[in-house]
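Batch manifest, entry 17 of 40.
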Amino acid sequence: MINRRVIANNGSMFIMILCSISISCNQDSGLESLKNSNDARQVEVRDSDGFSYLLFTPMNKVEEVDGKLPLIISLHGIGERGNDLQILKRDGLPKILDGDISFPFMVISPQCPLSTEWYYTNENNIERMRALLDDAVRRFPIDTNRIYITGFSMGGIGAWYFIINLPEYFAAAAPIAFRADGWSPCSAKEIPVWAFHGRNDSVIPYRRALSLVDQFRNCGGGIEFTVYDDAGHDSWTRTYNNNDLYSWLLHQNKD
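Output type: structure tokens
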């Protein structure tokens, strides 16, 4: 079982990573303060051809295999769009990462521009995500057999969207508070999914999530669907604080 107090890195490997990329940091999260602090922090990366993102590199290397780490792509909801990466820490996985010294995953939390949503076709978000993933794999010690994606609300829909359109990248997905947007999930049927939703969700009704789950099952996809009977739209806070989610992810491998 993974201790939920998990995540970070400011050891020598982290400093090497920071020195290899262009990072936009404010005074409180700059390189010097990271060098001189025992706190695990997320840093801003703004030089990708894809989305700008927060990067979390773990101090805990227990899940390192042949020098490579598992990666979680974490997608935010609609309220965190824009060009200020620090607002991603208001909610979801980025909210609980800073200061966590035991989380064993690298985490990339991209930010969606105000001009689009993860799954809108007014901009080429599929190619943006592809560029982000390809660039991250070149720069960082990422195990390409252990790349996972999660997200909540708009990000939960986005998690489905990206495994449907880029299934070759992902070993598993954990969408939360989601629905479909008229797509078939069958291209993602080889990807294990653990999905979460609140039965009393008034923003994205439970029946819409269930419809997508049933479609995925009908395609032959393997999915576990957890429904919180007492939850509304926020079904992600308890999910991201559930150790079992991270243990499950680590059991999913493309090999």
